[in-house]
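Example record

One chain of 302 residues, shown exactly as stored in the release files.
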Amino acid sequence: MRSKIRFPRAAKASWGMLVLTWLLWLMNANDREIMYRVQPEIVKEWHLSPAAWSAMISGVFLAYALIALPAGILSDRLGRGWRRKISQVWYMVVFTTVSIFIGIKVTSVHWWQFILWRVLGLGAAGGAEATNVAQCAEYWSPEDRGFALGLHHTGYPVGALAGGAVSAWILAAFGGENWRYIFLITPLIGYLLAVALWMFANERTYGQVNDYARANGLTAPEDEAPVRMEVSEQWELSKSALANRHVLLTVVGAALINFAQTMGLWFLSPYLAFVMGKSPAYAAIIGVVPYITGWVGQLLWG
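Predicted structure tokens for this chain:
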């Protein structure tokens, strides 16, 4: 017998936060992905060897991973629920601002400047990612949180697709030598979204989420954990989660999948440009094709 589809029950504020964090996740993806699209032009400008470019990639993503950990700890210290905006907004502002620094030639004329802005930007993006997912989750009752986070993550391929399309248009319109325009133009929406989150996330909207949950027999998010968590509490919760074999295998499996995905994405644009001799715009737009099928797959399998 086929089961009926049950749409989640949630307060309007839960849906509003889902939309906002989806858009913020889209911008996070866009900021990370636009560097994939312009790899050939960056390599040509600074005459980089494959080893130098690969080392830079490793360095910036190491920063992305390592900074996300203390950033998440700091976010828990500042507060859960609506208070997450205190950390998330500032992480968003930092990675948007340093991305724009790459778009200004005087602040990115040297290779070391590009590396500096990418390390700082992706480090802040790591913090924004961790707090973004947490804020979305904490505006939903655990009974329907899986649906919310699944739908939330469809923002990544959409952001990557949008960033790739805009990158291809800019490269075609202004030429590959003006690749910096991509970093100057596309991140600006991030400021507007940061302001929108700051205004929306407050005690009133979070209260609506908890009131709705209690009135409908659901678990109120504020009853799950303290408003603020100390490092010792975070450490104990982390150990408890990773002690579960299924959680640990999921973490390891996701890491390996991300590794394989990243290898393929970094490889595609340079291959099209340097091996097949395609234009920068062509390399940029073909690089987003996997995200079309990825987005469809998320919707169908999710």
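Notes: The two ends are 20 Å apart (CA to CA).
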